[in-house]
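Standup notes, structure subgroup. Blocker cleared on the IPE input:
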Amino acid sequence: MAASSEHAPRLPQHVAVVMDGNGRWAEQRRRPRPFGHRAGVKAVRGIIGACVSKGIGALTLFAFSSENWSRPRSEVSSLMDLFLRSLRREAAELSANGVRLRFIGDRSRFSQELVSLMGDVEQQTLSNERLHLNIAVNYGGRWDIVAAARDLAFAVAQGTLDPEQIDQDRFALSMSLAGLPEPDLLIRTGGERRISNFLLWQLAYTELYFSNALWPDFDDAAFDAALTDFAQRERRFGKTGKQLQSGAASS
Ligand code: IPE
Ligand code: IPE
Ligand code: MG
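Run returned:
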């Protein structure tokens, strides 16, 4: 992934987004909730385009949580349908724009049709490098951590891994977003100020930004406002402000 730090030192390399507020957006218009989800797809297109043009190398979008199965069956099936149709429609253009798609989450509950489309799109876009786009579907941060732990336990049981070798770096290698820098910026729209079981491990030092905009209203200007806010944050990673001011070289 190209480092953009020289030209735009304050641009995040990896943005994660909890795209919340579609249902309320529709309800405000006295329309059924799926109407809001469809409007949300437009905002997804917008933020992908913005990341590509600004040179942000990775974008991780929370599209469906492991808890969202608890919604009314009709809403869940319309979301699955929308996901399938949007993916079919957008995949070729995304690929032409240099987007590499990856899906994170447990695929075991999806239809065979959706699972195979997801696999195909991942394969087709594998060598693209301009934007790493990760879509979290049936994703939960706790699921991710437990899946990594199980992975490591298997390796130990098979004798290919010594428990002494398990440190944070090795653990991170077994997690969904292995190989990508951790998100620098998390944006949550819709006014709620919670993580809702999104990337629990990966958000350890992420800057959090909450917007009252409902997701379908989150446009370029709203994204720019989030980036401007991010640019003003002082990321200390445990150090003091004074240490940072006296130069990155001193430790
Ligand atoms: C986010 O919007 C999209 C999904 C969770 C799939 P919501 O559907 O949660 O919208 P609100 O929060 O009810 O407005
Ligand atoms: C979080 O939104 C999940 C997604 C945006 C996909 P929710 O609307 O499901 O979150 P809660 O339940 O209000 O915390
Ligand atoms: Mg919501």
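Discussed briefly. The chain is about 40% helix and 15% strand.
Next: hand off to the docking folks.
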